[in-house]
């Protein structure tokens, strides 16, 4: 009976520890998302500034990829596309 009681307490401690680790992992994932979104906004702003500098100095060469990158990322649309593409769990 004592061994069974010890196993129950051990199981409870393991579950509590796993729950805490899961919450920390979720917090880190959310923080990573926020940092990545901020970095994307900063990169888009930097690209816009580079485009303005090119126009100011009269550089006529255009890069087709930059036009696509200058558009702000629609996070809601991206989330919807990812949800549709990922297999159902």
Give an account of the 3D structure:
Helices cover 82% and strands 0% of the residues. The chain contains 3 helices and no strands.
Percent of sequence in beta strands? under 5%
Low-confidence stretches: none
Compute the CA-based radius of gyration.
Answer: 24 Å
Distance between the termini: 39 Å
Biggest β-sheet strands, sense, barrel: none
Helix percent band: over 70%
| Class per helix and strand makeup | mainly alpha
Number of separate strands: 0
The global form is elongated
Query: What's the number of domains?
Result: 1
Number of helical segments with 4 or more residues: 3
H-E order = HHH
Mean pLDDT: 88
Write the layout of secondary structure elements.
Blueprint: H1 2-57, H2 64-69, H3 75-85
Give structural attributes.
3 helices; 82% helix; 89 residues; mainly alpha
Give a brief outline of the structure.
The protein has 89 residues and is mainly alpha-helical.
């Amino acid at each position: 009976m004592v061994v069974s009681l010890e196993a129950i307490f051990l199981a409870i401690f393991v579950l509590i520890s796993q729950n805490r680790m899961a919450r920390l992992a979720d917090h880190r994932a959310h923080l990573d998302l926020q940092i990545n979104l901020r970095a994307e906004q900063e990169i888009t702003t930097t690209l816009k500034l580079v485009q303005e500098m090119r126009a100011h100095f009269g550089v006529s060469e255009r890069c087709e990829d930059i036009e696509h990158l200058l558009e702000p990322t629609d996070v809601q649309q991206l989330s919807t596309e990812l949800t549709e593409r990922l297999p159902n769990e």
